[in-house]
Amino acid sequence: MMNLAVYAELKAREGPTPSKATGISDGHVVTPGVDISHGAILYLDSVSVSFDGFNALNDLSLVVDAGELRCVIGPNGAGKTTMMDVITGKTRPDAGTAYFGQTIDLTRLSEPEIAGIGIGRKFQKPTVFTDHTVFENLELARKADKRVWPTLTAKLDSAAYDRILANLETIHLAPEAKRQAGLLSHGQKQWLEIGMLLMQEPQLLLLDEPVAGMTDDETMRSAELFLSLAGKYTLVVVEHDMDFVAKIADRVTVLHEGHVLAEGSMQQVQRNEQVIEVFLGR
Amino acid sequence: MRNMPAMTPTFVPRTGNTGTGALPRLWSPRAWGILGAAAVVLLVVVPVCNLVVPAGSAFHLSDYTVTLVGKIMCYAIVALAMDLIWGYAGILSLGHGLFFALGGYAMGMYLMRSIGRDGVYKSDLPDFMVFLDWKAYPWFWSFTDHFWYAALLVVLVPGVLAFVFGYFAFRSRIKGVYFSIITQALTYAFMLLFFRNDTGFGGNNGFTDFKRILGFPITAPETRVALFMLTAAALIGFLCLGRAIVTSKLGRVLTAIRDAESRVMFSGYDPLGFKLFVWTLSAVICGIAGALYVPQVGIINPSEMSPANSIEIAIWTAVGGRGTLIGPVVGAAVVNLGKSWFTQALPEYWLYVLGLLFILVTLYLPRGIAGLWARKPS
Question: How many CB atoms within 10 Å of residue B113?
Fold first, then answer.
């Protein structure tokens, strides 16, 4: 039943539809690498993944518009992280397709290739290079030719240096630039990882529980950060913190048992009978 | 953004606007000084004290000492190579003795050919081939009478083997203890192969009784000192090369692979190429160390490929301090000086001492000897 709805949505998008968040007006703007001429940047179509008989994803279909800030919620085991694994090439789907823009088949690319075409991913557990300084973490993540030889001979030019400094300001870590990343607080590591994603100059950011373990103040600052990023980037945020989701989301997708249960604004989703049933166990 | 913290004044690039102040340098001035002093001692003082200072003098260095230090420097090069792959990239090889031995065997082939007709059987063939009643050199001995070809083999044999092995292992994402065990099995398999007489490398006796190298008598004091100086230069050269690599962006990617490989992949780097680069380089460096070792000690046999030898290399590196380059060099020196003292004084206890040393270092000095004086990163 949900699939039909998604298909209807897909059909509706075939004509040039303006995207509200980006202001891409006529559907003919093409950013290098990814073709978002139809307004959407990510298409998952009937994706299924099973591990030893357990259906982590079950006929999942999802479309994300360019420039949108999409939140994905759902109980534990709903398939949120597996969905990110499929998008980033970590897990190959048993069935279904995953497209980045109109043309790029994500199921054929490796993790580094997918990162290279503009999809950045933040893990549930903050993952940074603990032995490197904050500055070096950002330097490594920075968009560049990431093959072996160019990396060996790479020099940091002043433009790149300035970009890293600007990024340090964005993620509130300028005073910590020379500190070892392993010594940062949990919340700071979360931000550093987001900063690293931004250095990759991605089109699409996948954030897995980005405010988990943050203080209220840090969570609030993160909400501001994400809202300022939406439009420039497309964000898909998986989060358990409902207040946080309510604060930032354009649209919310509810996953349950590996497929989409409901999709819409936070209010719409909260009124959905099935969602209430799944979340409150009635 | 609100509450944006001001930039700290200390975080300003030191040299122009290239940003080098934020990234590590090749060597600090102090390290350059120590390196220069070491070069003077090894390349000037030692040769003079051995060759020029008369034997009776207090400043005379015996041939034994020169050979011992030369040998230890070869081990130090191996420990350095081990540190590149283990200390920086986090890949523990328990088969590095194989690459060392292969380099040694490649050089040994040239040295065997250089014996000419001065062997026991006065034949053009090495004694072990006469003994096996072989009439001609097997095909893989072709051209090994040319020094430069043998030198090429020193680099290519360990390099190509490491590249092919590494490609399949890293592509299959074999990591951690599984990788270590496979490398251990690899060196063991090669040891069994080289123990066979039919393999064509002298069986369990290996190669020995070398007479000359590049026309010079191999046991002459001048030849020994020349080999010593060559080894010292190689050690210092590889130390600088290693440092240049680990302070490059590639070096930082290697450490990043060690600490968070998935983050490296999702940052757009394919770890395969990086691992393969440092793994192959490490094997080639070991091969060169082996080639310098064999003419100095005068023998190469399959026991160099025994699993225990490769484990010892890991111990030198751990004792010296992983991820410091200079630490493993010191570690190789300390452990081997200890070994040469113990194996003379209390030979039966050496293995216990080695095991105990490894346990104590792991428990009390996780950062090795280098950790004793390394400043904590601020």
Answer: 19
CB–CB contact A115 B248 (8 Å):
no
3-class SS of residue B370: helix
Distance CA(A15)–CA(A116), nearest Å, equals: 29
Per-residue pLDDT tens over the stretch A227-270: 988 888 999 999 888 888 988 988 999 999 998 999 999 889 88
What one-character DSSP code corresponds to residue A131? T
The residue among B18, B88, B249 with the most chain A CBs within 10 A of its CB, best to mutate, is B249
Handedness of CA B191, B230, B165, B178 (dihedral sign): positive
| Best residue in A84, A106, A156 for a mutation probing chain B (most B CBs within 10 Å) | A156
Helices (H), B52-141: 63-82, 96-114, 127-131
Residues of chain A with Cβ-Cβ distance to B275 below 8 Å are: none
Q: Confirm if B281 and B331 have CB atoms less than 8 A apart.
A: no
Residue B107's closest CA among B7, B20, B11, B207? B207
Write the ipTM: 0.85
Using one digit for the tens of pLDDT, what is the confidence trace for A121-174? 999 889 999 999 999 999 999 999 999 999 999 988 899 999 999 999 999 999
Q: Which residue(s) pair with A121 in the sheet?
A: A206
In angstroms, the CA B279 to CA B324 distance is: 17
Measured between CA atoms, the residue of chain A closest to residue B244 is: A152
pTM: 0.88
